[in-house]
Fold this sequence. Notes:
6 helices
Amino acid sequence: MKKTVRLxxxxxxxxxxxxxxxxxxxxxxxxxxxxxxxxxxxxVRHYRCGGGNEIWKKSILRVWLLGFVADFAGAxxxxxxxxxxxGQLNLSLYSHWYVEMLMALxxxxxxxxxxxxxxxxxxxxxxxxAPGHIRxxxxxxxxxxxxxxxxxxxxxxxx
Length: 159
């Protein structure tokens, strides 16, 4: 009898594609910039902050860079959780797609929380906006730009 070796338990979350394939960055950087820009401009318009283009010019680089910092923190948390559950507790997370998605939730939540906090504290600092508008813009960015793609089950990649 010939044995077939399958590596179902290899830890390879979808967000690791960014680290392994630099070409993905060529797509991820402009797409994230465009999404962040759209959210900032639409939120400024929705909340009637005034001076949308000026606010965008003064904040977009910080919003964009801080978003990546938050995404990496969320990815680090997910990686640590997977390591503890699979490595230390010796449980397989890849048996069911919904377990993998649930394990990613803390990382997505952390990234969203960091996006809100960092954007509220730093991204809109030089815009001259009222604190209420800053909180609303930071919340819009946290909700609409959180890294939900981290919740894509790796089973979709393996099949």
